[in-house]
Amino acid sequence: MFLEIVTPEAVLFSSKVDSFSVPGLDGEFQMLNNHAPVVSILREGTVKIHLHTLEHLEIDIISGKLEPHIDDDKILTLAIKSGTLELKDNKAIILAD
């Protein structure tokens, strides 16, 4: 699936991913390929992006706010204060603060 993370300042991430998890109002939840359409409000927490490979990832499109996970370099993390998620037809957009 394709994930894009956008803030008021810039596009922080834009690439294909295996899955990602986000901090929802009722707890963390994960989006996988071919997930049903979703619109959700996000609370303060960490977005975890699960990459299949780092091979096609363009480092110059990644802001310094994205960090590799301590235990797995194929997982990127991003701390957010709040946001909105929309997922439809294997394309997800996170509008984050």
UniProtKB/TrEMBL annotation:
One of its GO terms (cellular component) is proton-transporting ATP synthase complex. It comes from the Bacteria. Keywords: ATP synthesis, CF(1), Ion transport, Membrane, Transport. Pfam families: ATP-synt_DE_N. InterPro entries: ATP_synth_F1_dsu/esu, ATP_synth_F1_dsu/esu_N, ATPsynth_dsu/esu_N. It is a peripheral membrane protein. Gene3D superfamilies: F0F1 ATP synthase delta/epsilon subunit, N-terminal. One of its GO terms (molecular function) is proton-transporting ATP synthase activity, rotational mechanism. Residues 1-64 form the ATP synthase F1 complex delta/epsilon subunit N-terminal domain. It is found in: Endomembrane system. Produces ATP from ADP in the presence of a proton gradient across the membrane. Belongs to the ATPase epsilon chain family. This is ATP synthase F1 complex delta/epsilon subunit N-terminal domain-containing protein. It comes from Polaribacter filamentus. The lineage of its organism: Bacteria, Pseudomonadati, Bacteroidota, Flavobacteriia, Flavobacteriales.
